UniProtKB/TrEMBL annotation:
<keyword id="KW-0479">Metal-binding</keyword>
<dbReference type="Pfam" id="PF03884">
    <property type="entry name" value="YacG"/>
</dbReference>
<dbReference type="InterPro" id="IPR013088">
    <property type="entry name" value="Znf_NHR/GATA"/>
</dbReference>
<dbReference type="GO" id="GO:0008270">
    <property type="term" value="F:zinc ion binding"/>
</dbReference>
<protein>
    <recommendedName>
        <fullName>DNA gyrase inhibitor YacG</fullName>
    </recommendedName>
</protein>
<dbReference type="GO" id="GO:0006355">
    <property type="term" value="P:regulation of DNA-templated transcription"/>
</dbReference>
<keyword id="KW-0862">Zinc</keyword>
<dbReference type="InterPro" id="IPR005584">
    <property type="entry name" value="DNA_gyrase_inhibitor_YacG"/>
</dbReference>
Length: 72
């Protein structure tokens, strides 16, 4: 119980991977490429802590009310 292995899950297929894995943090080169493809197509909205759907909604709401209520 001494070896603290750093384990993560492959972002693509959720397979457990270790930091010594050649394709870490992916389980394979294939998954790495799939992941890159996801980034390129903008499929990764959830993984970013900055982009919260509610925040985005609030921002667009604000923009809308700013446009119609200029004198407030
Ligand atoms: Zn994988």
């Amino acid at each position: 119980m001494t070896a603290k292995k750093k384990t993560l899950r492959c972002p693509t297929c959720s397979t457990l991977v270790t930091a010594k894995d050649a394709d870490f943090p992916f389980c394979s080169d294939r998954c790495r490429k799939i992941d890159l493809g996801k980034w390129a197509s903008g499929a990764y909205k959830i993984s970013s802590p900055v982009v919260d759907p509610e925040v985005l909604e609030g921002l667009s709401e604000q923009a809308r009310s700013n446009r119609s209520n200029d004198d407030e």
